[in-house]
Every structure is written in structure tokens, then in C-alpha cells.
């Protein structure tokens, strides 16, 4: 049943972390425990990337959604760890595909240990995640996660096809965002409802929340790539451009800019590189591309919050609403 919207006092990210501290520390312990292997390199590389300062937003989704649905058990912690392992595996593989040398302000695993080790430890994390899922013993959980990992892989391939492709449309790009990023947020929130044996409309409402939150999150990342402070984001301005990735700010600037501006951006996407970064930042500025990208993110957040109408009021639901707002207000 739908619950009325309510003017709740928003919670800060610190409030949310305090509310979920017990669950999150249990998840951290599980992650350390399940990461262990007899193979030393897996321990070293796995611990390096898992402990390299991620926001842990995806596991937080699982925990909050389960608690918001009144779940009393402990399997939500196992699934939160599963989601973090899958996310980490995609990062390991991503950095190899993109030949990235920095992530979150630190050297990437592939920079330190090489591509082969990164790919193989990513595979280990995927397979360990599925082992953990089986231990939960719920077929719907397996179905959601199998579909999700498949969709992520499709998104990776679609993004590969978009690299150095200046004719990528907004629609095509949003599809890539869904597959690569939003689908794991969608699964994370949905799992909480499934674990708590909620009816289908509630599980679908949670899935919609996660999907819209993930979309907003990635769009803000795209905007920060051209406006962020490298010290805060752990990336350099124009990293996406250097890799020839046509993200939303570039797609908008090409569409709205002068023919010269469009030609400059097109060339940069086709060739990859920061040679014309100043002209491109100017085009992004004059076409309002960042404002446009952030507006899309804010629309997604509004949809995310609206879809939580399927849940009763609780500090957990308020946390989910506040987390959605945080995703667009952050500067890192």
C-alpha cells in the first residue's frame, strides 16, 4: 500500500552512518573474512582495493532497504558484502579496460600488480560473491544477482563500443549508465525487500528507487569530471575525455554548442586526450552542460524519493531519502 509523503528532517551522511554503524561494521568484518584466500596475491590485492576508501553506498542500500522493510535477520549483511564484492570486481576490470593508473587518489591495482592479476582477482571476487549468495539459500536473490551481473557485463561492452564514438546519443548513453551503474543500485535496494518477504509492488518500488539513485549518482560523477577538485574526487579534470568517453556534459555541449565547439569536442572524443581541454571546458560552460547534467540527476532523485512511497515511515526510509539528496549535492 502507498504511504503518504511526509516532511521529514533530512539526515546527514554521518547520521545515516551512525544509524547503520552496527550493520556496517558487521559487513566490514564479513568482507575481510570472505576475502581471505590461501593465495597470498588475492589477499594483498583484494585487501588493497576493498580498503581503498570507497563510499560503500551500494551495501548501505541493501542494509537500509532491508531495515526499512522491517527485516530482523542477518542475511542482509551477507548480501551487502556480496554487492560490495561485485562492485569491486567491476572496478578491477574497468581499470584494466580503461588503462587507468589512478582511482580515488591512489594507484590502481593494475598499476601496482599488473593487468593479469587485476583481472583474475576480479574473477575471484565475482565467484566468491556467488558462493556467498548460495549460502543465503534464496532463489529470488540468485535470480536478481545473476541478471544484474549479466547486465553490468553488457554495459561494459556497450561503453567499450561508445569509446571514441562522438555520435553517441543521450538515450544510448543513459542506457549505458543503467547497465554499468544503476543496475547494481537497483538490485541492492530490491534485495532488501526480497529478504523481508515484501509483496511485489514494494520490491518494485525499491528497485525503482535504486535505479533512479544510481542514475543520479553517475550523472553527478560525469559533471564532477569537468568541475570537481582533483584532491576531493581522486581524479583529474577531463579524465573521461582523455579516455575518449562521450559522457552527458560532452553530448549536451556538442548538441548545443557552435559548429566549431562541436567539431573540437568530436575530435577530442575520437582521438582521446586533453589537448583541447580549455576550449572544451569553455564549451561546457557556455552551453550550460553541467547545469543540464545536474538537472537530469535531480529529476532522477525526485523519482527515487517518490518511489519510496511504498514504505512506512521510519528512520531507515528517511535515510534512503536523504541519501538520494546527498548523491546530487556531493562534490566528491
Description:
This protein is mainly alpha-helical and 332 residues long. The chain is built from 17 helices and two strands. The chain has helices at residues 13-19, 21-35, 40-50, 57-68, 75-97, 109-113, 115-136, 139-162, 170-195, 200-227, 230-233, 239-242, 248-256, 259-271, 277-286, 289-306, 315-329; strands at residues 102-103, 106-107. A two-stranded antiparallel sheet has the order 1-2. Strand 1 and strand 2 form a beta hairpin. The mean pLDDT is 92. Supplies octaprenyl diphosphate, the precursor for the side chain of the isoprenoid quinones ubiquinone and menaquinone. This is Octaprenyl diphosphate synthase.
Please provide a brief summary of the model:
This protein is mostly helical and about 325 residues long.
Amino acid at each position: 500500500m502507498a504511504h503518504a509523503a511526509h516532511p521529514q528532517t533530512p539526515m546527514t551522511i554521518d547520521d545515516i552512518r551512525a544509524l547503520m554503524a552496527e550493520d556496517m561494521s558487521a559487513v566490514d568484518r564479513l568482507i575481510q573474512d570472505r576475502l581471505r584466500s590461501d593465495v597470498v596475491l588475492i589477499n594483498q590485492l583484494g585487501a588493497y582495493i576493498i580498503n581503498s576508501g570507497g563510499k560503500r553506498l551500494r551495501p548501505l542500500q541493501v542494509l537500509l532497504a532491508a531495515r526499512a522493510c522491517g527485516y530482523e535477520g542477518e542475511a542482509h549483511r551477507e548480501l551487502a558484502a556480496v554487492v560490495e564484492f561485485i562492485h569491486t570486481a567491476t572496478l578491477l576490470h574497468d581499470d584494466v579496460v580503461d588503462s587507468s593508473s589512478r582511482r580515488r587518489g591512489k594507484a590502481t591495482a593494475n598499476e601496482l600488480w599488473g593487468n593479469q592479476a587485476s583481472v583474475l582477482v576480479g574473477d575471484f571476487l565475482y565467484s566468491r560473491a556467488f558462493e556467498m549468495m548460495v549460502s543465503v539459500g534464496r532463489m529470488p536473490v540468485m535470480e536478481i544477482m545473476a541478471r544484474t551481473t549479466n547486465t553490468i557485463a553488457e554495459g561494459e561492452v556497450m561503453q567499450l563500443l561508445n569509446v571514441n564514438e562522438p555520435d553517441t546519443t543521450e538515450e544510448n548513453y543513459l542506457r549505458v549508465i543503467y547497465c554499468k551503474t544503476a543496475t547494481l543500485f537497483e538490485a541492492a535496494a530490491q534485495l532488501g525487500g526480497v529478504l523481508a518477504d515484501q509483496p511485489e509492488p514494494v520490491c518494485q518500488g525499491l528497485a525503482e528507487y535504486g535505479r533512479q539513485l544510481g542514475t543520479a549518482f553517475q550523472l553527478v560523477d560525469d559533471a564532477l569530471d569537468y568541475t570537481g577538485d582533483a584532491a576531493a574526487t581522486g581524479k583529474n579534470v577531463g579524465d573521461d575525455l582523455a579516455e575518449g568517453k562521450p559522457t552527458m556534459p560532452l553530448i549536451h555541449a556538442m548538441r548545443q554548442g557552435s559548429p566549431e565547439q562541436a567539431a573540437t569536442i568530436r575530435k577530442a572524443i575520437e582521438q582521446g586526450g586533453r589537448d583541447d581541454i580549455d576550449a572544451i571546458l569553455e564549451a561546457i560552460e557556455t552551453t550550460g552542460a553541467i547545469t543540464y547534467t545536474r538537472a537530469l540527476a535531480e529529476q532522477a532523485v525526485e523519482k527515487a524519493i517518490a518511489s519510496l512511497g511504498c514504505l512506512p515511515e521510519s528512520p531507515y526510509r528517511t535515510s534512503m531519502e536523504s541519501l538520494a539528496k546527498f548523491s546530487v549535492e556531493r562534490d566528491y
